[in-house]
Structures are given as C-alpha cells and as structure tokens.
Amino acid sequence: MIDERKEAQASLYVVGALPPEEAREFEHSLRTDLELQLLITEFRSAADAMVVSFPRVQPPSDLKQRILRSIDSPVTGANIVPLRESDFGSWLMWVPWALAACFALLCIILLGTSASLRRQIADLRQNIEQISAASTESEQQRQELQTVIQQVTNYQQRIVELQTQVAQRNQEYQRDVTRLEDQLKQGTRQAQAERVQLNRQINEQQTLIDELKDTISQATAATSDRFAQTRIFALLPNPQSNLQAVGAAAFDTSAQQGVIVIQNLQPLPASQDYQLWFIDPRFSSPVSGGVFGPDARGQARYQFQANLAIEAVGGFAVSIERKGGVALPTGDAIIMRSN
Amino acid sequence: VNDPVTTVDDTQLLRRIAQQDRQAFSQLYDRYATVLYSTILRVLENRDDAADVMQEVFVTIWDKAGSYNPNVGRPFNWVLTMARNKAIDRLRAQKRRYSFVEEVAQELQPDTGFYDSGSAEIFGHERAGLIRAAVETLPLEQRQAIEMAFLGGMTQNEISAALQQPLGTIKARIRRGMLKLRENLKDLV
User: Fold this and answer.
1) Is some CB atom of chain A closer than 8 A to the CB atom of B124?
2) pTM above 0.80, yes or no
C-alpha cells in the first residue's frame, strides 16, 4: 500500500525535484517495492507525455545534415578499419558473419526475454490490481469492523454507566435497608424493654393482686375467725349490789384480748379502782383482767389482755378494789355477765 | 508511446543505430526531431542553443544506442530523458532559470501553428490530441510546479523559493498534478 508520503516522493522523484540525499534514500526503497516501481513507471510515462502539449516548433532545416555530418566525422569513423583485399579467403573473413549470427541470436533471445518480461509486467499489474481490490475490500471491512467496534465500545460504556448507576442505587438501597434495620432493631429492643417492663409491672401487679387476695383471704379468714372466736357478753348489774351500772364485753379467745364498755359507773375515791375479772371454770377463782376508771360521764371503755390463758370464758365481773387492784376479789361484784 | 508496433520499431531502430545504421538513424531523427527540439527550445528559449543541444543529443544516440536497455524504459523515454538532461545542463551552464510555459508560449511563435506535427509521429494524431487535452486540464499552478522541476531541473526547495510558496504547498501541487496527469493519461500512454 502506497501512502500519500510515498506518492509525493514518487512524484518529486520522477520530475527530479527531490534533493539528492532524499532521492538516494527513495531509490533504495524503490529496489524492493514492486508497487512503487510500477507507480514510478506510470508517473514517468505521464510526465514524458506531457511534452506533447508543448507548442510544436520545427528544428532548423539544416540541423539534420549537421548532425549527419557530425557522425560522419573522422573522430566517429576512426574506429572503422577497412578490410584488405588480401584478407579475403582467410578465416578472418568469417568473423563478421559469425558476429552477425551471434548478434541475431542475441536479438532473438532479447526479444523473447522482452516479451516474457512484458507478460510478467502484465501479470504483476493484474496482481497489483487484484491486491488493490482486495485491499479496498479489506479497508471497507476494516471500516465496517471499526464501526462495529465503536458501537460495541459505546454499548460497553453505556453498560458501565448503567452498572455504576445500579451500584449507586444498590448502595443507597443498602444504606436505607441498614438504616431501617437499625430502626427496626432499636424499635424491637425498645418494644422488648417495654414488654419486659410491662411484664414486670404485670408480675408486680399480679403479685400485688395475689398479695391482696391473700390479704383479703387472710383478712376474710381472720375476720371470720375473729368473729368466730369472739364472744360478746352483756353485763348486767348485780342484784345484790345497789349500783345500776350496765355494759357489754367482747373477748377474742384466740387473741386473748377484749374490750369492755360500761355506763352509769359512780366515781370512786382515789384509793379505789374498778377491777375486771374473768370467770373461767378451769380456774377455782376469778382471774384479774386489770383495773380501770370511769370518765366524767360515768362511762368507761377498757381494752384488756388476759394474763393467763383463758380457754373457756364463762363470764365477766367488775368489783371495787383498792388502788392498783388485787390478786383475788375482796369486794362484791357490782356487775356480772348475763347469759 | 504504448503502441507495441511503435515501441518495437523504435527499439529496432536503436539496435540498428547501435550497428551504425545511418538509415535507421535518419528515421529516428525524423520521428523524434520535432518533439525533442520543441522540448529543448521550451527549456532554453533560444533556437541556436536548442539546435546545439539537439546535435549533442543525436550524436549521443549514435554513440550510445547500444547501451539502451528496453527493460528500463521505452525508446521515447530514453531519448527524451537524454534531451531533457542535456537542455537542463545547458541552462545551468548559462546560470539561467527556467521560465514557465505561459511566458514561453507567448514569446515563441510555433513555426507550423499546429501541435500534431512531430508528436503525431510518435503518438498518432488522435492520441496526441487526447494527450494534449488531458495535460491542459491540469491547474496552472500544478503544471507550473511540475514543469519547473521536470524541465527546469529545479528541486522542491528551489521551486518553493522561486514561487515564494511554502515547501509543503509545492510538494502537494506536484503530487496532485502527477496523480491527475497519470489518471488522465491512464489509457493513452
């Protein structure tokens, strides 16, 4: 393939415009480049044919004679040695004929060589044309391939852009998912904590309920027991006493305590107290329940605690004793239980 | 020039001239004299100088015809190259420079007033006319650059300086001109 630079060099070389050193380099490359040799031949023929376009001017009419005379000059003809008559018949007379025959043979060979070379040149031209055609086709294919490659490159770039976008979207989605997961985890932890707190509260409430239930049960049981174990006594005046005091007493045998409420009690001297007595058949004498005094209205409310274990109280009595009480009653009972 | 008959005839003439055949030499002169003289005169612009160079050319043909190698080129190319080189040598010896075709054409009045004489001997009337028409299609600046090198023996740098144009412009003109010339003359030479 001859490029533009080679074409320019070939053009300049044919018209003789190449500088000497560049012309030598070009001739060196020309030796091995058949296509370039053919181009040179075509350029040279075209350049030579250009002279046809010049205005025709006839040479001087005597120029031909001058030239013919000059080639007939002694200098030119000096090399011609005339043959001597005596030489005829000798072997030397055959030398020109032999030379002529050789020359004729040489001409024939040269003509044959020339024809062969022309055929070779024609073949070479045909080959070059075929190669040029193939080259053109290859160039077209190359250009088409180049176009396809360009399209593929464009697609690849587009794919890379799309992949980049997808990767960015994925990263964004991943970040969103991570953020949502974190929020979900945090919410779950919070919900679990709240659930634990609620469970704890429920348990506490349940415990409280249970405790309340137990308390209620216990209270209910205690209340029922207390009322079950509590005995209430009406206290009436002793007919043998002139005092009109009345009252009531309640005693819890399980707790061994009770309360007595009396009205119409007369005030006592400072040296005397009213003393309460338990009547229990298991004991031979009343058991002291403590001393008390009435208020200004003649009423007394006295809570007491048994000092001895009273299992089956049979009644209560109140007597007037010396200050602080006595171990056994000394006076008459002013009030007794009424069954 | 491509005509096999002409080529073979010219080659045979040169072979006969190599054998000092005056008749062949005379025939060759008649065939080439006008085109060679016109070309030499275009270079030298002087009839006496052109006649002297013509004589040198044909004496050389007489002496060197045996060295002609058909493989190198056709007889016409060989003879034209010889005439062109001798004319350029004479021009350089006179320390002159080639003048372009348009000026030459105006100064010189062709003797015959037509072109075919001489070139028709070599190319045939019809083909010579076609060749001339093809050459004349070249743009003037391309033809000028080509002729200054081809007939004036000027290098690309000398042409660039003479025309006051960049070297690249001169190269491009010669390349485009030669390509067009080759294309136009493809089927003619």
Assistant:
1) no
2) no
